[in-house]
C-alpha cells in the first residue's frame, strides 16, 4: 500500500469525482429521510496542497494546478458546479487560509460531512494506518460520523444493508493492484445482494479503454439495476498522458442524473483538457426503465 492520495488531491480526477459526488448527495436529499453515506476508500479526509507534492524522498510536480487550479479563478462556472467550489472555499477558509489562492482541499469525507444533514450518517473506511489515524483526527468531533480502519470491500458486506434503508456508497480505490476491477465487481455483487436499491458510485481511471470495457462486460454478468457511466477524458486515446481521464460508474443513479451532469462534464472537458481529443460522455450500461 504505497498509494498516498495527497499527491493527487485536487487534480482533474478529484474535481470530476467530487463535483458528481456533491450532486449525488444533493439528489439523495430530495427525500427528507436520512441515509447512510458509506465511503469505502475514504483517504485522510482533507489535504494541504502546499505539502501535497512533497513525498518522503522526492518532490513531485503538484497535480492540483491542472485540476482545481483551473476552476478556482473562473467566474463562469455552471451553477451546479458552483456549489462544489463554494464548499472547497469554505473548507479552505475554515482551516485558516486567508490567501486568495487555495491551500486546503477537502476529500470526499469532508465534502459529505459539509453537505450532510442532521439525519444523514457517515461511515468512513480507510485501510492505511496513517491515513486512517488522520481521518479519525479529522472527524473526532463530528456527529453521526464513524471512522473505521478496515478493508472497504469488507465494509460493504459488514455495513449494508443500512439501518436507514437508504444508502449512497462511494467506492474510490487507488488502483494500485492489478485486480482492482475484479475486486470492485465482487464487492458490487455483494452490495447489491444486501441492499439492491442503494446508490453505488465507483470511480475508475481511464488508462486503457480496453480494461474499462472488460470491466463493463464483467458487470453485465451481475443482475445490475439501472447503471450509467459518466466519463471525462482530458486527452484522446493516443495522448501522451498516463491517465487520460476517469469515470464514475453509478448504479441506481438518481432520476435524470445523466441530464443534470452532462453539461457539467462538458464544461470540465473544455476547461481541464491537457491534450487534444479530450471529451465527456455518458454511457448507459443498463438503461433507466
Ligand atoms: C483514491 S484514495 C481515496 C480518496 C477519497 N475517496 C477522496 O475522494 O478524497 C484511495 C484510498 O484508499 C485507501 N485504501 C487502499 N486499499 C484500501 C482498502 N482495501 N480498503 C480501504 N481503503 C483502502 C488508500 O490508502 C487511499 O487512502
What this model shows, in words?
With 289 residues, this protein is an alpha/beta fold. It has one domain (5-286): 3-Layer(aba) Sandwich (Rossmann fold), CATH 3.40.50. It has helices at 12-28, 49-52, 68-71, 79-94, 108-115, 129-138, 152-159, 180-194, 209-219, 257-272; strands at 36-39, 46-48, 104-106, 121-125, 145-148, 167-171, 199-206, 227-233, 245-251, 279-286. The strands form 2 sheets. It has an 8-stranded mixed β-sheet, with helices on both faces. A two-stranded antiparallel ribbon has the order 2-3. Helix 8 (180-194) links the parallel strand 6 and strand 7 (199-206). It is globular and about 45 Å long. The model has no long low-confidence stretch (mean pLDDT 94). The structure holds S-adenosylmethionine (SAM). Residues 1, 3, 5, 17, 39, 41-43, 107-108, 125-128, 131, 151-153, 172-174 line the site of S-adenosylmethionine. The site of S-adenosylmethionine (SAM) has 21 residues, from helix 7.
Q: What is the count of β-strands?
A: 10
CATH architecture: 3-Layer(aba) Sandwich
Question: What coarse outline follows from CA principal-axis ratios?
Answer: globular
Average residue-wise pLDDT = 94
Amino acid at each position: 500500500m504505497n498509494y498516498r492520495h495527497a499527491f493527487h488531491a485536487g487534480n482533474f480526477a478529484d474535481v470530476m469525482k467530487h463535483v458528481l459526488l456533491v450532486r449525488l448527495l444533493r439528489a439523495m436529499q430530495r427525500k427528507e429521510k436520512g441515509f447512510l453515506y458509506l465511503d469505502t476508500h475514504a483517504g485522510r479526509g482533507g489535504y494541504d496542497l502546499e505539502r501535497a507534492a512533497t513525498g518522503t524522498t522526492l518532490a513531485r510536480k503538484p497535480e492540483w494546478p491542472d485540476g482545481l487550479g483551473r476552476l478556482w479563478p473562473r467566474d463562469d462556472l455552471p451553477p451546479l458546479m458552483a456549489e462544489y467550489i463554494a464548499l472547497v472555499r469554505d473548507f479552505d477558509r475554515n482551516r485558516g487560509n486567508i490567501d486568495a489562492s487555495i491551500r486546503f482541499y477537502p476529500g470526499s469525507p469532508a465534502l459529505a460531512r459539509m453537505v450532510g444533514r442532521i439525519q444523514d450518517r457517515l461511515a468512513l473506511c480507510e485501510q492505511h494506518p496513517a491515513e486512517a489515524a488522520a481521518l479519525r483526527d479529522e472527524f473526532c468531533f463530528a456527529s453521526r460520523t464513524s471512522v473505521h480502519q478496515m478493508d472497504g470491500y469488507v465494509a460493504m458486506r459488514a455495513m449494508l444493508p443500512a439501518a436507514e434503508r437508504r444508502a449512497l456508497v462511494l467506492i474510490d480505490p487507488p488502483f494500485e493492484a492489478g485486480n482492482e476491477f475484479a475486486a470492485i465487481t465482487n464487492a458490487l455483487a455483494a452490495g447489491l445482494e444486501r441492499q439492491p436499491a442503494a446508490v453505488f458510485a465507483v470511480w475508475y481511471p481511464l488508462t486503457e479503454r480496453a480494461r474499462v470495457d472488460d470491466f463493463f462486460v464483467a458487470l453485465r454478468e451481475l443482475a445490475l439495476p439501472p447503471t450509467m457511466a459518466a466519463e471525462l477524458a482530458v486527452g484522446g486515446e493516443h495522448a501522451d498522458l498516463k491517465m487520460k481521464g476517469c469515470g464514475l460508474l453509478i448504479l441506481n443513479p438518481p432520476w435524470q442524473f445523466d441530464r443534470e451532469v452532462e453539461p457539467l462534464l462538458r464544461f470540465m472537458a473544455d476547461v481541464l483538457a491537457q491534450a487534444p481529443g479530450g471529451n465527456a460522455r455518458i454511457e448507459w450500461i443498463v438503461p433507466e426503465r
